[in-house]
Amino acid sequence: ARAQIGVTGLAVMGSNIARNFARHGHTVALHNRSVAKTDALIAEHGDEGDFVRTESVDEFVAALQRPRRVLIMVKAGDATDAVIEELAAAMEPGDIIIDGGNALYTDTIRREASLRERGLHFVGAGISGGEEGALNGPSIMPGGPKESYESLGPLLESVAAVVDGVPCCTHIGPDGAGHFVKMVHNGIEYADMQLIGEAYHLFRDALGYDAAQIAAVFGEWNTGDLESYLIEITAEVLSQVDANTGQPLVDVIVDAAEQKGTGRWTVKSALDLGVPVTGIAEAVFARALSGSRAQRQAAKGLASGVLGDKPTDAAQFTEDIRQALYASKIVAYAQGFDQIRAGSVEYDWDLTPGDMATIWRGGCIIRARFLNRIKEAYDNNPELTSLIVEPYFKDAIETAIDSWRRVVVTATQLGIPVPAFASSLSYYDGLRAERLPAALTQGQRDFFGAHTYERTDRPGKFHTLWSGDRSEVEA
Ligand code: 6PG
């Protein structure tokens, strides 16, 4: 046996990561349900490194050095379970199975527990960066037993993206921690994309810019604080001209956003954890709204009630949108990091949020200059309560606040939906409020259900005898 790693599931992501390992000098055993994909990879890229072609699972497993390390790159869900079962049957105690798909973290917890009983190590690893990242350096978020990272870490780190000499890969935490963190990464990805979408919408409908003009603005923004992969590709997508019609491609793409599920999972988990991830939730719902074709059809032509005029100072409004985007993005990350901390407590993972900021600086879809700032924030204060109170971000929001409000007001007056900008601003206003209306909510709950409330002036739980003499009793 001579292969240091095996990759099974050779669709684009699997093939690219296998090539990435080979390009870094590792001998890679290849396996795929249909051998045609394996042969195609070897025919096209066999000269990039040392590949071992295998046809059966037994042959695949036999090709690997011990402890055997197999990376599974198949569709999340039942397909993953089937492959794990086949591999586990052929492997021996101490061997490591790595799931590099977008698995639901609770599945990863279940799989890790059952493989541990059989003496195998199971590592649920979030891998971000799309096809290009898989080939040239993704951000990798491996969970699972710490000891398996000793043998696996150097291998994964060798193929990950590198920023300032630091690989974008580190051991995240036990069992499902890696996939949990990848899930939250994707939630933030959704929020970031939605915010960019809202900015685009404002340029289009409030300033009347065409796609090429908007592309130029995003191109410009990508040289400043907002510099990020998503802003960069936004400029590219907006510049693309459709060969058939000669129109900007974005104008001929159907405006119904799809989703494979990771954003939805993030919100479901946040609901269970009680963490307000409003930006991510709005992003998931905005995709759902865009896809509600029957409702959108029925609502066409409803009253707009537009108040006020379009902005006349385009340069000022452009800067306002940039600030609103930056501030809302801070909120989205603050919320995502809150969820990571809450998940860590709930599952006893002992996660280090600063690690995420470090390994998301390169390779992944949400990579951004801004992540350096988040890393610095956690370096300065590993116990940070919320990103929005950290001096750098606090200042950034203070600088942005007038613009942020103007954007939400203008969008509202013009009837342009900005759910993520607006809810992020409300989240900020909610957190900084002296008194929230939750006091009234508590009073109402006590009224109809004797659910009790706490008082501002003394400890304890209290109930007012609403249907009696309305005196207060200690509960
Ligand atoms: C990544 C991406 C990747 C995938 C998304 C797409 O980090 O590389 O997040 O995992 O492209 O899951 O998600 P949707 O299909 O739900 O938009």
Automatic annotation (TrEMBL):
Asked if the keyword Transport belongs to this entry, the reply reads no
Any signal peptide, and if so, which residues? none
Q: Where is the 6-phosphogluconate dehydrogenase C-terminal domain?
A: 178-467
Key word Magnesium present: no
Which InterPro entries does this chain map to?
6-PGluconate_DH-like_C_sf, 6PGD_dom2, 6PGDH_C, 6PGDH_Gnd/GntZ, 6PGDH_NADP-bd, 6PGdom_BS, NAD(P)-bd_dom_sf, Pgluconate_DH
**Single GO molecular function:** phosphogluconate dehydrogenase (decarboxylating) activity
Keywords associated with the record: Gluconate utilization, NADP, Oxidoreductase, Pentose shunt
Pfam families, per the entry: 6PGD, NAD_binding_2
Question: Its domain of life?
Answer: Bacteria
Q: What is its EC number?
A: 1.1.1.44
Give, as one word, the top-level EC class. oxidoreductase
What is known about what this protein does?
A: Catalyzes the oxidative decarboxylation of 6-phosphogluconate to ribulose 5-phosphate and CO(2), with concomitant reduction of NADP to NADPH.
On subunit structure and binding partners, the annotation says: Homodimer.
PANTHER family (UniProt xref): 6-PHOSPHOGLUCONATE DEHYDROGENASE (PTHR11811)
The family annotation for this protein states: Belongs to the 6-phosphogluconate dehydrogenase family.
| Name under which the protein is recorded | 6-phosphogluconate dehydrogenase, decarboxylating
